[in-house]
Amino acid sequence: MINNIIRSVFLIFLFFISLSAIGDDIKNETEGDRRAKGIEARADRKFIRQDFDEAMAIYETAFSHALSSGYGAALHLKVARLYLTLLDYAKAVPHYESAMAISGNLFSTADICNYLDALRFSGQRMKAISLARRYAFRDTYHSDQRYQNILHALNYEDGFLPIGIPEFTVRSLDKVNTSNSEFWVGVKAGEYFYASSKSRFHDPNKKFYHRSNYFSLAESSVYSVRNEGDIKKRMLDMIPSSLQNGPMSFSRNMTRMVVTQVYYGKSEGIGMTAQGLNTFQTRLYYSNYDQKRKGWSSFKEIFHQIEGSSYSHPYLFNNDRSLLFASDMPGGFGGYDIYVTHWDDRKGTWGESVNLGSQVNTEGDEISPSLFDDMLIFSSNGHIGFGGYDVYGITYENGHTVDGSLVHFDYPINTVHNDFSLLHIDEDRGYIVSDRKTANKDDIFYFERNISDKRKNNMLFGISEAKAVSNGSINLIRDENKSHTGPLKEALPSSRFVEHVLSLYFDFNSYMLGAESLKALEAWQKESDFSKIDTLVMEGYADEIGGEQYNQVLSEQRAVEVGNWMKDNGITAKLLMQGKGQIAADIDFSSLLSQFSQELSGKSLYQYLPLENKIRLNRDVRRVDIKAITK
Q: Where would you find this protein in the cell (predicted)?
């Protein structure tokens, strides 16, 4: 009896000691979090003031304290996001890894995509592939087109290269571009201008840039600038420095301009949302030119803009009566969508903002809208593409987009990096912004149609004239008597996947389709539902017999031959043809040893095979693989 009482008292004593120890742990974790949050707040203030190196050093010291798992994971993810804004991919990766190890559930699809970009742009491609495979079969990622585009980029590091001479040649404006961001080209009274940021901060969504200046591009030739003095000449000084934070727009008749302001709100801290950092918001301001006093009016908010949302990438058109812009305001399809608003003469204000709908906008981000004739040109990471932002065009008539006319521009306009803010000079020349030079941030590139390009007579920036109605004038203003109750409610585009559908085999040293391949193609065409296919990719291969350069050309010819069959047989899906060059056959040498000397190694055995044996064994690599990108 006494022993039982002693045992019970001892167990109760142990229980209270355990509670005390747990309480001390909670107290220590809470104190560690509290100390770290004070450090985090100090680093936030430094970061907002653009003392980036000092800020990041302070953030790093916060991890020396005992942090609770929840706060530790959130802080690692925040620091990873901040390193990404400085394009310091190598330093972002360890923080992504630490946050993932503590709590992978904290990651949004945007975070996974940013993590993948940090890996591939820091030279850790195999790690990126491993991470991508971990999420490839989850439903959320099947429907996230940015993630799917990154998968494509990992498979096609150089994008889908065209066969032969590309439609356009792209050149960097090396006398203009710096190690910071050059992010916009616009036109003012027939003169081209560009924007340059003096800040290391780099918004991954491309909605704004700190400490921008605007300069004359001053072209003396098609892509080079006149001299250094012209480039450094300060332009557009009528814009207050606080409003020089991103893309801007002038109306063609020079009576109105719209500019971007970075809006910080009331907080000096850097918070996080599921989409990313929420401290830096942007708003649009406008100024009108007063003909009487020959000057610009004070800048005003262009219309009421919702707190917590951003508005950017303005584009004035239709003699300053209509405005395209990008925004993540509530009620859209997700991320940044493109909207249009029109000037109301009776009210003297801009009208309701109208979402351009699911032909343009996706669950991803759409930015940098502009117009060329009757085409709306914009960039998106939510449509199928090469990776990152790509440039697209869609027919835009009478204030509406035309269903089924969306076109993705080919390489080298688009790459596996971010390509956006395309501005035409004419149908053969223009400018585009891209971060394809990874040593820099965003740079300006000049593109020009190749003179030898035979497609010139029936193509317009990659869009066929059959899809682009370019006859007559276009009324770009909606009927303003109609009432709009919010974003258009078209259904979101369905998910798209890459599927292998058919392999066709070729005779040795030939790119002609044989009877067996033609029979396979005809059977496949009869069985296929092409309404569900967006794009067909033809990948040509050659065996190792012959020179590498010769086999590269032969693989391209095989892909083109299959593509031509598709065109000739009325297949209207977009066709992408690529030569992959020579590949080695997977040969089982053990079955051949009975015919040849046992002393020969596998590698030497192939070398000593007669040519006819090599031709027979390499049959499976002389092929074209057809892949369908389905809707």
A: Membrane
Largest CA distance in the chain: 107
* Predicted confidence band of residue 293 (pLDDT cuts 50, 70, 90): confident
Asked if 623 and 506 count as a contact pair (C-beta separation under 8 A), the reply is: yes
User: DSSP letter at 49?
Assistant: T
- Residue 150 contacts residue 416 (beta carbons within 8 Å): no
Q: What angle separates helix 52-62 from helix 69-85, to the nearest 10 degrees?
A: 160
CA pair distance 254, 320, nearest whole angstrom: 8
Cβ burial of 274 (10 Å; 0-12, 13-18, 19+) is exposed
Q: Are 219 and 226 in contact (CB under 8 A)?
A: yes
- The owner of tokens 């109750």 is 485
Q: How far apart are CA 262 and CA 260, in angstroms?
A: 7
Q: How many CB atoms lie within 10 A of CB 264?
A: 11
Cβ distance 142 to 124 under 8 Å?
Answer: no
Pairing between β-strand 443-449 and β-strand 349-350 as defined by DSSP bridges: unpaired
Q: Phi then psi for 192, rounded to 5 degrees? A: -90, 135
Write down the residue that tokens 């065996």 correspond to.
Answer: 543
Angle CA(398)–CA(399)–CA(400) in degrees, nearest 5? 95
Strands across the sheet with 182-188, in order?
182-188, 191-197, 212-216, 234-235
Residue indicated by tokens 């340059």: 196
Question: Is the bond preceding 314 in cis, omega lying within 30 degrees of 0?
Answer: no
Cα torsion at 42, 44, 50, 53 (round to 10°)? Answer: 70
Backbone phi, psi, residue 371, to 5° = -125, 140
Residues 624, 577: Cα–Cα separation, whole Å: 10
- Per DSSP, the three-state class of 180 is coil
The two tokens of residue 530 are 């092409």
Read off the tokens for 285. 């301001």
Q: For the packed helices 145-155 and 125-135, what is the interaxial angle rounded to 10 degrees?
A: 140
- Whole-angstrom distance, CA of residue 544 vs CA of residue 532: 36
Between 578 and 51, residue with greater pLDDT: 51
pTM confidence score: 0.65
**Closest CA relative to residue 187, chosen from 150, 221, 216, 226:** 216
- Indicate whether 449 pLDDT > 80: yes
Number of H helices, E strands in the chain: 13, 29
Task: Give the model confidence (pLDDT) of 174-228 as tens digits.
Answer: 888 988 899 888 887 778 888 888 888 888 788 888 888 888 887 433 333 334 3
